[in-house]
């Protein structure tokens, strides 16, 4: 019985530690967006610095375009490298996803990015994200007349 309680506490401690990591904060943000429509409040809770200012200044129409990712299906999320100091991390990661149109996959994409995360009040927040490389492959013939 003691072993069971000890194992449970160990699992809980490792999960709590993971939620406080910069990788977990980034993955949570990406996973929460893909396949969903997020609110402005949700995004503002997860960002700081330049990104916070950018989202606060964004028009409602532009934010709706950014927030609506319900036609996207995630295929993979990989952390490629990480460089951290005490309260700042730079994480290079890649995301692979499918874009669907009428429930049919029309594009396969892979994007490599660098995210800057800053620790604020014991929470890791995204301060900036820059694209390194983007690759899109059409899975269907493209009709330029549509």
What does this structure look like?
The chain is α+β, with helices and mostly antiparallel strands and 146 residues long. The protein has helices at 2-19, 22-33, 40-46, 49-57, 60-67; strands spanning 72-84, 88-101, 104-120, 123-138.
Q: How much helicity do the residues have?
A: 25-40%
* Overall geometric form: globular
Strand-pairing-aware structural class: alpha+beta
Biggest sheet character:
4 strands, antiparallel
Pattern of helices and strands: HHHHHEEEE
* Number of helical regions: 5
Strand composition percent: 35-45%
Side-by-side strand order of the widest sheet: 1-2-3-4
β-strand number: 4
Lay out the secondary structure.
Elements (H helix, E strand, L loop, with lengths): L1 H18 L2 H12 L6 H7 L2 H9 L2 H8 L4 E13 L3 E14 L2 E17 L2 E16 L8
Antiparallel strand pairs: 1-2, 2-3, 3-4
Quick recap:
By secondary structure, this protein is an alpha+beta fold.
List its traits.
globular, 146 residues, four-stranded antiparallel sheet, single chain, disordered N terminus, alpha+beta
């Amino acid at each position: 019985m003691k072993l069971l309680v000890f194992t449970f506490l160990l699992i809980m401690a490792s999960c709590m530690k993971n939620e406080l990591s910069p990788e977990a904060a980034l993955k949570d943000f990406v996973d929460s967006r893909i396949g969903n429509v997020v609110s402005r409040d949700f995004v503002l809770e997860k960002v700081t610095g330049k990104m916070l200012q950018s989202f606060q200044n964004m028009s409602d129409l532009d934010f709706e375009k950014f927030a609506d990712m319900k036609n996207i299906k995630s295929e993979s999320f990989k952390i490629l490298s990480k460089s951290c100091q005490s309260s700042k991390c730079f994480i290079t990661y890649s995301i692979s996803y499918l874009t669907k149109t009428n429930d049919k996959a029309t594009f396969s994409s892979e994007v490599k990015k660098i995210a800057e995360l800053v620790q604020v009040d014991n929470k890791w927040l995204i301060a900036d994200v820059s694209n390194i490389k983007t690759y899109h492959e059409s899975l269907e013939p493209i009709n330029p007349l549509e």
